Amino acid sequence: MVLGLSYLDIGVLALYFGVIVYIGIRSSLKIKKEEDYFLGGRQFGKLFSTFASFGQATSADGPAGVATTTFKNGASGIWSSLLMLFATPLFWITAPWLRRLRITTMGDFYEQRYASRKMAATYALVGTIGMMGLLSVGYKAVTTTAMAMTGKPDSALTATEKIEKEKADRLFELSNENFTYLSQAEKQELTELRQENPRALFSYFSEDVLIWTICFIVLFYTALGGLEAAFYTDLLQGVFIILLSIILIPFAWSAINEQFGGSGMMQALSHLHEQLPESTFEIFGSPATLDFTWYFIVMAALVSGMTVVAQPNQLVTAGAAKSEDAARTGFVTGTFMKRIVTILWGMVGLCAILLYGGKIMNSDFVWGHATTQLLAPLGLGLVGLMLASLMAALMSTADCLMITVSGLVVNNFYKYFFPNHSARHYIWAGRISGGVFLIGAAIITTQFDTILQILKFIWEFFVVFVAAFWLGLKWRRANRIAAWSSILLTFTLFYLIPTLLPNIFPALRTDESLTKLTKSRIVTRNYEVKAVDLENRKHDIAQWEKLPQSEKEQVKKPEELSLGGYNAVSYAMPRQAIFWSKGVSTSKADTRYGRGYIYLELYLLDRLGWDLSKNPYALNETIRLGIRLLFPFLVLFVIAWSTKPDQQEYLADFYRKMRTRAVDNSLLKQQPTTETLLFPNSNWELYTWNKKDRTGFLLACLIVILIIGLLYLMVSLGS
């Protein structure tokens, strides 16, 4: 064993890294011009486009993240990664548009459509920062999981680490008790330990060292080989991702049967339903995630579906395909593959609840802990294979994002200041800017303990450009002034002012009107009593018996339960912040203060007389997302109608290009226009659908229904 890994595990990792470095060197020999580096010569068919889309959409935060949210919240936690499912049929229509643009970067769209290099440069800078934050999510996930897989045994801990671990174990013990039946002394101890937040896991590896190691490996093979190296490794890494999504499940089922008796898949699934509370298997409306209401899911899917198409990385997989058929097939198929493996990750999380429910303090370590417990005893190098697979998941995202950002910076920013250089010069500028991007993402990762707020921020951030993109494609009346107004006003009102105000006026963070919370709600559900409920109730009664007599008089003794009967379970929904992006915390002096930036739109609604504290948190979030999506469109519409339209010369060229289907890499002037306008005498560029458009869209909608059915099947089998 070396640093918690067997020699066979280390051998598997070395072999994997050797193969992808070889791919990078081999691909570098083919690069002759900029398009070869940034878009692989637009030569990729359906297979490579599928795995590129799958690899780009699936980073290391996917498996570990879904397992974490499922471990904490039950089956409904799968929605943390499944929200985009409902937007996937839309990609069947939008992917061909991205291929028809025939551009190198998404920044080129703003330059060509609005004749503004400054708008393209602005998009390049903002998009680069956004992609850094997106990549930092994957960095964080893979390093956290790797640390869980290489944890030190108690015998290897230092004296200081042993003391901290003892505190963490005590915190975990108290956190798992029913808070109602803790003594006052125990409640005070729990509060103090939560503030201290001691570590429970100590790894042989430094998290920072892991981050920088992955960063430089990706930098080496992608900087050499460009997008071709990225796509070839995405094919390899896509296989690894699918493998890691499946490999843990049979071993988890075997461990469940070994603990509870029996054999086979169905017996293991039966044990899950017999041993876990019924609420664990609720997909919609679970008390654990009551805020995932149907209306929030619909709004979140709409926002993500609209903004994701405007993100810089979406052009790469569609734009690099040799035809729009390859682009749409690869984009949609790869995205659906991600939705299917998401359900498999959720199964690992459900199994982990039963196997490790009382053993893991930090749910972020679930995937790594399960890997070590289930695969390491076999001695087959499977831990190394899992670690390689997780790194593959991260790298398949990192390489595409690196090429995306390289193209953005070089074509839309660097060339603005340094024009008229050779292709070789710009390729090297792309390699250097890509390296800066990877290093920047690594630096961001080392500055944060949690990535949840980062991910949420990045996901919403591209509403800044969403109206300029969509209306630029579909409305000839959209002009440069209106696009700039939409971009700048949306950014200023939703991000710049809300971020600056609390820093300029710190008193805002403690203002009572800004720190109010949603009202407390009690949700009661009736569940059939199972064996696990009986054990939990016996434990609660024992805890009550140990209370001092003075405290017993204040807390009612829990009633005994009978197997097969029904138990009314009440859940106190937590009060949640309304106006702050990172919530509201309480200081030691019992003063509430807001964290993050302000949601000015919600504060304005509240001041106008709508008491948002009476709304469920999900409704407030739905309203906020709706406002952020609608506002930039309204601004662009109003300004465009109030100002003169742009010159028709470049608009005619742009829309002729969009009406010409990209069947291969032939020059645009050699191809006839193929689209028929739905409203030919208007300013709207809406095309009639042909048989392939209709069939593909309806088939994609059917697959959405089938995937939801698969999710229901997963949580129902064995019940």
Automatic annotation (TrEMBL):
<keyword id="KW-0406">Ion transport</keyword>
<keyword id="KW-1133">Transmembrane helix</keyword>
<keyword id="KW-0769">Symport</keyword>
<dbReference type="InterPro" id="IPR001734">
    <property type="entry name" value="Na/solute_symporter"/>
</dbReference>
<keyword id="KW-0472">Membrane</keyword>
<feature type="transmembrane region" description="Helical">
    <location>
        <begin position="340"/>
        <end position="358"/>
    </location>
</feature>
<feature type="transmembrane region" description="Helical">
    <location>
        <begin position="6"/>
        <end position="25"/>
    </location>
</feature>
<feature type="transmembrane region" description="Helical">
    <location>
        <begin position="77"/>
        <end position="98"/>
    </location>
</feature>
<dbReference type="InterPro" id="IPR050277">
    <property type="entry name" value="Sodium:Solute_Symporter"/>
</dbReference>
<dbReference type="GO" id="GO:0006814">
    <property type="term" value="P:sodium ion transport"/>
</dbReference>
<feature type="transmembrane region" description="Helical">
    <location>
        <begin position="696"/>
        <end position="715"/>
    </location>
</feature>
<feature type="transmembrane region" description="Helical">
    <location>
        <begin position="426"/>
        <end position="445"/>
    </location>
</feature>
<dbReference type="GO" id="GO:0015293">
    <property type="term" value="F:symporter activity"/>
</dbReference>
<comment type="similarity">
    <text>Belongs to the sodium:solute symporter (SSF) (TC 2.A.21) family.</text>
</comment>
<feature type="transmembrane region" description="Helical">
    <location>
        <begin position="451"/>
        <end position="471"/>
    </location>
</feature>
<dbReference type="InterPro" id="IPR038377">
    <property type="entry name" value="Na/Glc_symporter_sf"/>
</dbReference>
<feature type="transmembrane region" description="Helical">
    <location>
        <begin position="483"/>
        <end position="505"/>
    </location>
</feature>
<dbReference type="GO" id="GO:0005886">
    <property type="term" value="C:plasma membrane"/>
</dbReference>
<protein>
    <submittedName>
        <fullName>Sodium:solute symporter family protein</fullName>
    </submittedName>
</protein>
<keyword id="KW-0739">Sodium transport</keyword>
<feature type="transmembrane region" description="Helical">
    <location>
        <begin position="238"/>
        <end position="256"/>
    </location>
</feature>
<keyword id="KW-0813">Transport</keyword>
<dbReference type="Pfam" id="PF00474">
    <property type="entry name" value="SSF"/>
</dbReference>
<feature type="transmembrane region" description="Helical">
    <location>
        <begin position="209"/>
        <end position="231"/>
    </location>
</feature>
<keyword id="KW-0915">Sodium</keyword>
<feature type="transmembrane region" description="Helical">
    <location>
        <begin position="378"/>
        <end position="405"/>
    </location>
</feature>
<keyword id="KW-1003">Cell membrane</keyword>
<feature type="transmembrane region" description="Helical">
    <location>
        <begin position="119"/>
        <end position="139"/>
    </location>
</feature>
<feature type="transmembrane region" description="Helical">
    <location>
        <begin position="292"/>
        <end position="310"/>
    </location>
</feature>
<feature type="transmembrane region" description="Helical">
    <location>
        <begin position="622"/>
        <end position="641"/>
    </location>
</feature>
<keyword id="KW-0812">Transmembrane</keyword>
